[in-house]
Structures are given as C-alpha cells and as structure tokens.
Amino acid sequence: MEKKLTDFIGASPQESKALTREELERVLKKAADLIRTRVDYKYILLLLFLKRLSDEWEKEFEEYVKKLMEEGLDRKTAEELALQDKEAYTINYPPEYLWRKLREKDIENLPQNLSQALKKLAELNPNLRGVVDRFDFMEFMLHRDNAEILRQLFELFSGLNLKNASPDVLGDAYEWILRYFAPQKAKEGEVYTPREVIRLLVEILKPKPGEEVYDPAMGSGGMLIGAYLYVKEKHGESEAKKLFLYGQEVNPTTYALAEMNMILHGIKSPKLAVGDTLLRPAFKEGNKLKRFNVVIANPPWNQDGYGEATLKKAEFKEERFKYGYPPNNSADWAWIQHMLASARDEDGRVGIVIDNGALFRGGAEKKIRAKVLKDDLVEAVILLPEKLFYNTGAPGAIMIFNRNKPTERRGKVLFINASQEYEKHPEVRKLNRLGDGHIRKIVDAFEKFEDVEGFARVVELDEIKENDHNLNVTLYVFPMEEEEEIDVKAEWEELKRINEELAKVDEKIEGYLKELGYWGKGY
Q1: Which of 365, 248, 352, 362 minimizes the C-alpha distance to 306?
Q2: Which one of 124, 163, 477, 484 has the minimum C-beta count within 10 Å?
C-alpha cells in the first residue's frame, strides 16, 4: 500500500493564531537535534524558507479568492482567476508543490518532490534563480537513514503555521539556526559574526533612511540586516524600507542563504551579488566603482593569495589600491582600501572588523597605514575582548574610517580599549559576548570623542607618526586595574576559621600518634 506523509502527520495547525518566537525556536531545536552532524544544517534553513513561502502564498490566494467572491463570483471561478493572476502574490509559488500537496504525495519520493518544488520556484521567480535552485534534496536518497531524517524534518515543519508569522519572528528563527550551528561550522572555515558585534558597528555608523549601505563580504547578510533593523528601531518600518542594501559574497551557497535571510526578514529588493569582491567588485556606476554612504564588513582575516601580483589584475585597481598592495599572506589592507574607495567623499563612513595584527604589522602594511593616516581617514580604533568569535580566540578590532571627519576630530584618532567589556556567553562555553551595557559604553565613548581614563584616549596624528604609525590600542590606552577592596573583618574571621581547623587537625594527628605509641618519644 502506498504510504503518504499524511499517514504520519496529524491535523493541520490552527491558522488564526500567530506563531510565537518561543514556539518556533522549540521546533528548530528539535530539528537541530535530528540532524546533528549527519545532514547539513542548511536544509533546516531551506525547509523553513519553503514552508514560509508556501504558507504565505496560500494565505494570499485565499484572501484573493475571498475578495473575488465578495464581488459576486462563485468559488470555482474565483479560484481559477486567482490562479491565473501571477502578479497578485509576493512570491509566485507553484500550487502543485504547496506544502500540503507535498504531504499528500508518496513519502518515498519526498526528496524528488522537494527538489522539483525548488526548481519550479526558481523558474517562476527571477529573484530566486541562483538561490533556491542551488540546493538539491536528492542527496537524501543516498542513505536510508538520511531519508528518514528528511521525513522527520518535514513532519516537524508541517506542524508549523507560518501564514501569520511576523518577519521579526522568522528572521530571528533564521538567525537562531545560523548561530546554533556556528561553533560546528567554524571548524570548517565558515565565519559567523556575533550579532552583538554587528549591533556595535551599526550603532557607531548610524545608517539613515534613504542611505545606501554596502557589505563587500556579506556572508549570510547579517551586517546588512543589522543596518535595516537599526533604522527600523529608530525610525519605523516605513523609513527602514527606504534604506538601500547592497552586498557581495564569493561563496554561491552563502550568497543564497543571504537572499533567503533577507526575504524572511521582510526586506524587499536588496541588491546582492555573487563574486570575488577584491578582484571583480559587482557594483559600478558607469566606468567607476559605485560609492555608498555606509560601508560595513567583517571580511576573512589574514586572507592569503591577494598580494601585488594578483591585485594588479583586479578591476579598478588604481582607484582601490592607491595606497599600495598588501602582502600575499594577508588581504586585510586590501579589504580596507576597497571599502574606503567604495565610500562617498561627502559623507562616507566605513566600519570593519579586522585582525588585531593589521594595526601594527610592518612591511607593506605599515606603508599603507602611514598613507591612510596621512589622509586623515581613521576616526577610531576599538580593541575588542578576546573569545567573541566562534572561529578564533583572538580579540580582533574594529576600525572606523570617515571620508569627511567633523572639524573637531580632524588630525586625531580615538582609541578605545574595550578588552574588558564582556560577559560570559550564556549558550556557548568558553566564549564571551558584548552585553548591552558594554555596547552602550563603547558607543558613548565614540560619540563623545574624549579621554576616559583606562578606556578611551584621543591621540594626535603626530604622536601616532612618532610611534611609527602603530595603531595598537594598548600602546595608547591600557585598562586600569581595579584595586580590590579588602574587608578586614571578613578576612580576620576567615583567618580565625583556618586556625581553628588547623588546631583540630593537630589534635587528630596527636591522637593517632598516641595510639601508635609514638607520643612522648621526642614528638
């Protein structure tokens, strides 16, 4: 007898109730436990994305049919017309591959049916080409155990009603998956920027409605989404929609994750591209590099293979690498120069998370640093705490550049030593994170741009030049050691307690010696 997924799954979920963040997270935890390391976590993201698109299309379809019936059409005619009008939906979803339709098909063919749904989605939606069709569920056919995992995952997600789920809840869910698997994926070379670090960067750069924000190493889109959420929180959703987001990512699969991340967050029409930013930047205006109000990134640290020989073949090399070529074993200053060249002269702000070594290494990097400092582009250097990142215990630093520094900040650089501004990570042992208070303290220091003993110091460019253009934060500001307050009474009580315990131990030893007949013989 042909088995169907409905044989395993109960009734459809209630459609009126909006899904909460906690309910969705519980399901995601179960999904994560199911796959462990046997199946790529990206399939959880993909199933969440597919279920949302299916549920959203079905909701819009029902609303459209209801509207047509209110105008006097019978249901059959209304449904036929609603199916024909492809422009009426946020996403053009193939009705034959709706989630509930997939449940009715033979479970043995689930991988094929899901793969076909993705292929059809890409055909119907130009913005999803090169996104959903980069994935294939057919690998679940290779092992019987994996096929069972897929069935159980599908069953889990079938219990979710995503029709009324808000973009905030869905976006948080997507981020939860990325964060949950970050420690595991870090071992494989994937980079995940903690959301607290993104928030710190965004609060310093302060993107505004109508501005263009660019991430040249966007990964799964976290920086761009952070900018969007900042504007949404400060100015409201309608103003956030006026933000123009641009991003480029070299890894096609990661690029696809970024596109899906944007859709689930409710972000419309971001301009995202696949490609090697350092060699072939995607965004241009005529025959020049496109320039943005805000440029923000956490590019790969110490990336090798981008020395002079390689970058001399890059597009816009004169425009981007005018301060010099970095060494072949670290592209840090290639990324910085690309970002500076991508920032507008009149108001361009740049924020980059960088390896601490880029602040003080010699050779070609020192020469580039000297020229960038001479042009007075560096506004602030922030030393971060250690163990913030999943892929390295190194502290890292944030560099803030400004192509048009306020008059009072010209000829100066603010150094902030935030190495002690952390709390223990609540979920990942051995990791630290920036707390709300730490972020506020750093942002306040940047905004005030003044000395704070043991934490921040404004340094003249002449002093930095005297220090051989070394930007190592600890050279300019070192955290004060807090003097420990001694409670004399408590210490005295503790000393008394220890002496009493020692006296008891002496009594016991004396008793043992007496029993053994040693007491009185010179002891």
Answers
A1: 365
A2: 484
